[in-house]
Specification:
5 helices; Topoisomerase, domain 3; elongated; mainly alpha
Length: 92
């Protein structure tokens, strides 16, 4: 995997984590709606946030501290920097 692919994969992860971190109520609704075990929780998160189960698992594994304002700002900053790097690499 080359550097551009790695950056794009990281970008995809950041987008999903940011979506969850900016919508903690949606994540909690999904968890509360789940009537079964972990698989049901992942399905509900996937449905609520419109992500696949792979990304739902990443969201489910987020520490509560990742939902803080400081963490959201940090994710946004990292995403902006990453997108700038991707654009630069694609332009060259």
């Amino acid at each position: 995997m080359d550097e551009l692919e790695n950056l794009q994969d990281r970008r995809a992860l950041l987008v999903v984590l940011l979506r969850a971190a900016e919508a903690p109520d949606a994540v909690m609704r999904a968890v509360q709606r789940a009537s079964g075990g972990r698989d049901t929780v992942l399905q509900e998160i996937a449905r609520e946030l419109e992500v696949n189960e792979f990304w739902a698992e990443a969201i489910a594994e987020l520490p509560v501290s990742r939902f803080s304002t400081a963490s959201v700002l940090s994710l946004r900053q990292e995403l902006a920097e990453l997108e700038a790097r991707i654009r630069t690499m694609q332009a060259s």
